[in-house]
Every structure is written in structure tokens, then in C-alpha cells.
């Protein structure tokens, strides 16, 4: 098997980290809008409202809202076949529970999709990427409340109808398995636990509501346009046993169970033994279900799996613990690390592709992969980033092996932060991922000027040759 001729090379962003204009065009506040950024290694601050005297890097981010034509032209220059982005839920339904959508928000994305299609670029759209409406958290308790199912389905259906013929690749919830990152699954699901609340039981129930919402959205999306391809999106924390001890093998498997919990519910359409065993591990009961929920989950199975892969870790033994992409794991002495302590493991991507495809036998889509790094602008304006090229080159090599040698069905590859944006984990600008440099800094200063890095030209050649020249 070879990489398909219509392989979807591109790049990935999220509205809350890239779009900016957080209150323009009738947009409401999302949970991301009240998260204050922090320096490396410092916990982000979550607020109930926006403090006027505080710095929120995401509020302007790198301002795609006002630069989308310029940015899309740069993506087209690189040869993008697709562009993974998210729609900000609060740009369409500012509070989340309105009966009618915000036309100004709908029109903005019309313009973005039209601009992408002008260059032959397919939008790949995530409906909920860490940006649940804040009002739904404050009034309804977020996804612990069944009412959010209907609110989400109304939002998703509105998007499917409005953008029929403009968007055919969709994902429902970004990194949905981060919901089980207890004790603070706020970032994904907007959950803030009350004193005395059974956090595990709440997460099980909130996750069920999200599964039903996703299933209903898939069903409606297929009705509205049978050409729609609607996927889930998982954070994949590739994990190895720390030693050959059988106990470490068990520990490594158990580290992965929460991932498969969400994968099984989305792709198999039911709660598997992996899921029921997780309830036992969490000392939780099965979620409360309404009549017909099981049938909905089965009928609303996703068409493909999108996933993020950045690094791997080890489990078991007494390994030093490190943090990365909302999860932690053990330090692997065989791997190099990035400036932010994320372990670099290209072979882990091949392992990941095989694990997912062996288990689910549906098409896969690598929708996030990359490394945050410190970039330097030289006196002549050039930006040399061989470390980024090396990271991506080695991961693409392993990706191609998974397709050509292991016969994995892979739809595409969209490196994360193809243009510089605000880090979700730390709220920093200096942690840069992009092929395109944006003059914006941690203190909020900068001209927002766009510049091509060396990796821009390298990735252009990769796309031109469909991965043959790396």
C-alpha cells in the first residue's frame, strides 16, 4: 500500500488559540476565554469571568479573524490539501442555549470556507475544540447536565446545514478522552467539581452525554449530507512498560484504558468490557441512560478516527514523571526531549497507528503532531528551525512505514500549529509550532507580521512529492 494520491496534507489550528477577536462579531465567552495563560511549568488560572487588568493571550491570539485571507494564501503557497480548524461554538451560539444562531458568526466561517475552496483546500472542521460556551458551565453545570446534548446537536445541525457542500470532513469533540483527566477536566468538558461531589461518577455521566451528543450529530450530519465524513478525535498517549516486569506490562495497559474507553464508545458504538472495567477502576456506576441511548450510540458510530500524537512515555517502576499535552508519564531514557520536556518518539507514531487500526479497522487521520520550540528571528528576518524539520521528517517516515509496510488506512496528516498560535497547555507564544512565524509575544506585544520559516519551504516540498522527498 502507498500513500493515497488524494492524501490530505495540511496543518491544524483551533479557534481558541488562533482566531482572536474573542468578543467581535457577536461572539460569546467560552471556557477558553477565561483561562489565563501562564509561564512554562505554572498552572493556568481559571476564572468565572474576564478580569480587565489581566493578560489573556488567547483573546487576540495570532488574529486569524482579521488575517484569514493572508494566512490561507500562505497555506496555499505551501500546497495544503486541507486545513484543520475549529468553529468557535460561541461565535454561532454565544451563550450556547439560544434558539437561533448568530448570523454574523455563520457568515465569518462562510467567508473562511470560500477562501479555502478558492485555493482547492478542504476544510477539516472540529465542532468543539476546548471551547464550550461559558454560560453553559455557569447555568447548567456543563456536560454533567443532559440538556447540553440538545444544545450541541442544535449547534452541530446548524453547521451541517449551513456549510453543506463547503465542509465534508468533521470531528465532534477534540481530544474527548481528556475528559477523564481527573481531577481537572475543565479544559475539555468545562467540569468544575463541587465540594463533596463524586468526581469520577460525574466524569462517567458527562462523558455519556458527550457520546450521545456525538452520535446524534453523526446521525443528523449523514442525513443532511451523505457525503459528510464525521470522526471522533482522541489524544493518544503512547505508553511503554518501564521494564519487562509483568506488573509494568499491566501498568502500561491500564494507562491506555481511558483512551480506549472513548474510542470504543465512538467507533464500536457501545460500552465494551474496557468501558465497564473502567467504571470498576473508578469506583463508579454505569451512567444513567435514557431509553434509546444505546441504539443512538450504535447508529451514530463515527466514520474515522482523528488523533493527536506528540510523544510517548513509560509506565511502571519508579520512573521520573514528566508532563505533556494535559497528561503525565514516565521519563524514557532512550528518548530526547523538547524545550518543554516532551519526549520525542517518531517510532511511537507508527506504533500508535498500528494499535488504533488493529483495534478499530476504520480510517485514521493524524490531525495533530508537532513540537513546541523557541524560534529565533535573525537580523535579516530569516528563521532557521532545523529541529522542527527533523522532528516532522522522522515522524513522517514512520507514518509512511505504517501505511506502506503495515497496510494502515491513513487519510491525512495535519501538523499542529502550522502557523504560530497560543499554547493550550501554558498560554505562551514563545512555545512555537508553526511553519509560519507570527510576530506576537508573551507580553502581548508584536506587529502580527507573518514570516516564512525554513520549515515552510521544506514542508512545501514534502507535499509536492506526496512524502517522497523528506
From TrEMBL:
PROSITE patterns: GLYCOSYL_HYDROL_F1_1, GLYCOSYL_HYDROL_F1_2. InterPro entries: GH (IPR017853), GH_1_N_CS (IPR033132), Glyco_hydro_1 (IPR001360), Glyco_hydro_1_AS (IPR018120). GO terms for molecular function: 6-phospho-beta-glucosidase activity. The keyword Hydrolase applies. The keyword Hydrolase applies. It comes from the Bacteria. Pfam families: Glyco_hydro_1. Its EC number is 3.2.1.86. Keywords: Glycosidase, Hydrolase. The active site is at 368 (nucleophile). Belongs to the glycosyl hydrolase 1 family. NCBIfam families: PRK09589.1 (NF007154). This is 6-phospho-beta-glucosidase. The lineage of its organism: Bacteria, Bacillati, Bacillota, Erysipelotrichia, Erysipelotrichales.
Amino acid at each position: 500500500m502507498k500513500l493515497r494520491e488524494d492524501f490530505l496534507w495540511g496543518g491544524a489550528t483551533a479557534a481558541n488559540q488562533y482566531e482572536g477577536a474573542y468578543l467581535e462579531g457577536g461572539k460569546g465567552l467560552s471556557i477558553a476565554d477565561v483561562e489565563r495563560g501562564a509561564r512554562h511549568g505554572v498552572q493556568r488560572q481559571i476564572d468565572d469571568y474576564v478580569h480587565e487588568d489581566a493578560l489573556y493571550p488567547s483573546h487576540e491570539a495570532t488574529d486569524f479573524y482579521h488575517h484569514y485571507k493572508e494566512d490561507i494564501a500562505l497555506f496555499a503557497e505551501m500546497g495544503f490539501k486541507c486545513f484543520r480548524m475549529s468553529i468557535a461554538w460561541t461565535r454561532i451560539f454565544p451563550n450556547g442555549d439560544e434558539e437561533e444562531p448568530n448570523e454574523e458568526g455563520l457568515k465569518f466561517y462562510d467567508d473562511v470556507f470560500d477562501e479555502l475552496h478558492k485555493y482547492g483546500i478542504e476544510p477539516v472542521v472540529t465542532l468543539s475544540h476546548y471551547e464550550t460556551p461559558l454560560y453553559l458551565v455557569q447555568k447548567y453545570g456543563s456536560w454533567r447536565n443532559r440538556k447540553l446534548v440538545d444544545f450541541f446537536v442544535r449547534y452541530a445541525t446548524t453547521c451541517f446545514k449551513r456549510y453543506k457542500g463547503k465542509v465534508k470532513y468533521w470531528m465532534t469533540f477534540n481530544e474527548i478522552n481528556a475528559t477523564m483527566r481527573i481531577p481537572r477536566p475543565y479544559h475539555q468538558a468545562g467540569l468544575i467539581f463541587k465540594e463533596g461531589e463524586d468526581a469520577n461518577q460525574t466524569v462517567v455521566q458527562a462523558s455519556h452525554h458527550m457520546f450521545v451528543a456525538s452520535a446524534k450529530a453523526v446521525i443528523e450530519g449523514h442525513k443532511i449530507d451523505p457525503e459528510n465524513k464525521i470522526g471522533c478525535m482522541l489524544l493518544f498517549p503512547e505508553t511503554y512498560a518501564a521494564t519487562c516486569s509483568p506488573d509494568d506490562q499491566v501498568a502500561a495497559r491500564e494507562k491506555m484504558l481511558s483512551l480506549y474507553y472513548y474510542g470504543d464508545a465512538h467507533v464500536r458504538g457501545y460500552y465494551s468490557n474496557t468501558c465497564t472495567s473502567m467504571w470498576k477502576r473508578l469506583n463508579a456506576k454505569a451512567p444513567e441512560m435514557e431509553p434509546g441511548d444505546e441504539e443512538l450510540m450504535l447508529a451514530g458510530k463515527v466514520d474515522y478516527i482523528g488523533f493527536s500524537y506528540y510523544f510517548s512515555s513509560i509506565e511502571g517502576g519508579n520512573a521520573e514523571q514528566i508532563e505533556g499535552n494535559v497528561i503525565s508519564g514516565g521519563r524514557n531514557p532512550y528518548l530526547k526531549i523538547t524545550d518543554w520536556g516532551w519526549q520525542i518518539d517518531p517510532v511511537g507514531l507508527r506504533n500508535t497507528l498500528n494499535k488504533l487500526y488493529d483495534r478499530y479497522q476504520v480510517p485514521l487521520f493524524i490531525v495533530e503532531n508537532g513540537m513546541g520550540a523557541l524560534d529565533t528571528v535573525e537580523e535579516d528576518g530569516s528563521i532557521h528551525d532545523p529541529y522542527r524539520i527533523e522532528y516532522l521528517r522522522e515522524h513522517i517516515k514512520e507514518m509512511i512505514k505504517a501505511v506502506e509496510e503495515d497496510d494502515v488506512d491513513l487519510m491525512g496528516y495535519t501538523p499542529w500549529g502550522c502557523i504560530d498560535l497560543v499554547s493550550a497547555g501554558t498560554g505562551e507564544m514563545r512555545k512555537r509550532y508553526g511553519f509560519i512565524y507570527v510576530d506576537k509575544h508573551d507580553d502581548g506585544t508584536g506587529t502580527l507580521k507573518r514570516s516564512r520559516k525554513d520549515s515552510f519551504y521544506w514542508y512545501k516540498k514534502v507535499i509536492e512529492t506526496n512524502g517522497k522527498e523528506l
